[in-house]
Specification:
The chain contains 12 helices and 10 strands. It is of the alpha+beta class and about 325 residues long. It has 2 domains: about 160 residues, NADH Oxidase; about 130 residues, no CATH class. The protein has a 4-stranded antiparallel β-sheet, with helices on both faces. The protein has a two-stranded parallel ribbon with strand order 3-10. Strand 5 and strand 6 form a beta hairpin. The termini are far apart.
């Protein structure tokens, strides 16, 4: 092994050890280069309008596929996973309106950005001059593609990254840096013949294995869509008022999910006490108490009220309890 290879291996080892110390559950590294396989998939997905009103996904097409257009002199993409799965005692009861688990605690953008900044500072202190940028779901980076490329998991039929022995309840983030490191390789797909996520999706957003029509996803309707919710999805949103976890909840790999050790992702104690009446009568003050630092602020008080009314007033829903019963039948099949 040449001296340069030894140096890259040593730097890589340091980065992965420090990432673990900062609380990341996994770290993988891949060469910063053009994503050849993703280009036609992204182009086709956009051409079919599967982005809905998420027009920002149409922008910076070239940057989404080539990290060297985002960071001058980029050599490596460091992908990191941060577990957000809540402990059972912190999860909302099944018979009430639901907020996606990722939004229970403090907004992940802030939590992860702080960790990434520390990791980059530590790299600069250990390696020397390192240029780079941190990315947390707020820039044109195909995070799942890079995580897959660096061996952190495979992209499942529900289009989520799935990690053996860990599942998929985690955030993905990146550091794109201008130093060469030792690179990891992808792993195989372990979805097999399973179709639980396709079968369970109430809006048929998973149009075929590995393809999700974003404009049909419950998360899209409850977060991204700024208009009134369409009449045609009445009775299909279950009891989800912000996001949706159905395709992850039914995934067999998530039986390996373990509670996150990250205290900042713990929910406000009042959240699991909320019942349908409480949600119906939620005030601006209660909203601020529950979600002051949460990603739920993205939809805002008015947006959450819109979602609550739509679900509670939907005649076909039969209320949250009956919806959960239907979901349970799907999950166990």
């Amino acid at each position: 092994m040449q001296a340069a290879d030894l140096t890259r291996a040593e730097w890589t080892g340091f980065i992965k050890r420090r990432a673990a110390e900062l609380g990341f559950m996994a770290c993988g590294i891949s060469r910063a280069e053009f994503l050849e396989e993703e280009a036609p998939r992204l182009e086709q997905w956009l051409s079919k309008g599967m982005q809905g009103q998420m027009r920002w996904m149409e922008n910076h097409f070239d940057k989404r596929l080539d990290p060297r257009r985002l960071v001058d002199g980029a050599k490596s993409v460091i992908s990191l996973l941060l577990n957000y799965y809540p402990a059972e005692e912190d999860q909302q009861p099944a018979d009430t309106l639901q907020v996606s688990k990722y939004a229970y605690g403090r907004d992940y953008h802030h939590v992860i950005k702080d960790k990434l900044k520390h990791l980059l500072w530590d790299m600069q202190a250990h390696i020397g001059e390192v240029g780079g940028r941190a990315f947390v779901d707020s820039a044109p980076v195909l995070d799942k593609a890079w995580a897959k490329k660096s061996g952190l998991g495979w992209v499942g039929k529900n289009a989520n990254l799935i990690t053996p022995g860990a599942g998929s309840f985690y955030f993905i983030a990146e550091l794109i840096v201008d130093v060469e490191l030792a690179y990891d390789g992808p792993i195989r797909d372990y979805c097999g013949s399973c179709t639980r996520c396709l079968d369970a999706c109430p809006t048929q957003a998973i149009t075929e294995p590995y393809v999700v029509d974003g404009s049909k996803c419950i998360s899209y309707f409850t977060i991204e869509l700024k208009d009134q919710l369409p009449v045609e999805v009445q009775g299909q949103l279950g009891n989800w008022i912000f996001g949706c976890d159905i395709c992850q909840d039914v995934c067999p790999w998530n039986r390996f999910s373990r509670p996150t050790p990250e205290a900042q992702f713990s929910p406000h104690p009042q959240l699991k006490e909320m019942r349908e009446t409480d949600w119906r009568e939620i005030t601006q003050e209660v909203f601020q108490t529950l979600f002051r630092h949460s990603a739920v602020k993205r939809t805002g008080y008015a947006g959450l009220q819109r979602n609550i009314r739509f679900i509670i007033e939907t005649p076909a829903s039969g209320g949250p309890a009956s919806i959960e019963a239907e979901k349970g039948e799907t999950t166990s099949s």
